[in-house]
Amino acid sequence: MDIRNDLAAHVPRLRRYARALLHNRELADDLVQDTLERALARAALFTPGTDLRAWLFTIMHNLFANQARRAHVRGVHVSVDDEYLDEREFAVAASQTRSLEVRDLDAALQRLPDEQRAVVLLVGLEEMSYAEVALTLGVPIGTVMSRLSRGREKLRVLMTGARPIEKLRVVK
Predict the structure, then answer these.
(1) In this protein, which residues make up the domain named PhyR sigma2 (predicted)?
(2) Residues 108 and 117: beta-carbon distance below 8 Å
(3) Among 36, 93, 110, 145, which one is most buried in terms of CB atoms within 10 A?
(4) In this structure, is the dihedral angle defined by the CA atoms of residues 148, 154, 158 and 162, taken in order, positive or negative?
(5) CA-CA distance, 7 to 36, in Å (whole number)?
(6) Under a CB-based contact definition with an 8 Å cutoff, are residues 56 and 16 in contact?
């Protein structure tokens, strides 16, 4: 089986996930390109009959994790090119509260730890099952559920400004 024919169908989802992870269009496109390049180079390792989408997301997650580790050592990438910046992107009409909510959600997602953000995006945005996320990230399903729970709680706190829910203590 040649996976090359099937790769194109997965590019939009890979781009959406990469952009949500990185919050930088150019870096996200680079991550997608690196993912596809690695998938093509290692196409013989793909097991026919298994989920190509999960395999691609696993490759992307591993590349992202490696890049994040390297970036942590090097420092944060900050784009300083203003010539491509369209100032109209910052204009918001008074009646567009929905776009403000989306912007706030995006900002809150960026404040989540990488592990929680990845799980929240894969479950919420990509609509993957817990088992698919566990396979993609290489962690147990219980870890997926706890990261998702913690991520959702932190998002709730960030979005509403509420205090975190305190765990009840059982006094004996």
Answers:
(1) 7-61
(2) no
(3) 36
(4) positive
(5) 8
(6) no
Quick count: other Cβ atoms within 10 Å of Cβ 56? 25
pLDDT tens, 11-40?
Answer: 999 999 999 888 889 999 999 999 999 999
- For each of the domains in the chain, give its residue range(s) and CATH number, in order of start: 1-77 (1.10.1740.10), 91-163 (1.10.10.10)
Residue 41 CA to chain centroid, in angstroms?
23
Structural contact between residues 158 and 83, judged by C-beta atoms closer than 8 angstroms: no
**Other C-beta atoms within 10 Å of 43: how many?**
13
Question: Kindly report the CA angle at 5 between 11 and 137, in degrees rounded to 5?
Answer: 45
CB atoms within 10 A of CB 79: 11
User: Which of 81, 79, 144 lies closest to 116, judged by CA?
Assistant: 144
Integer Cα distance of 55 and 53 in angstroms: 5
Q: What is the token pair recorded at 121?
A: 């995006």
CA nearest neighbour of 139 among 113, 112, 166, 119 = 119
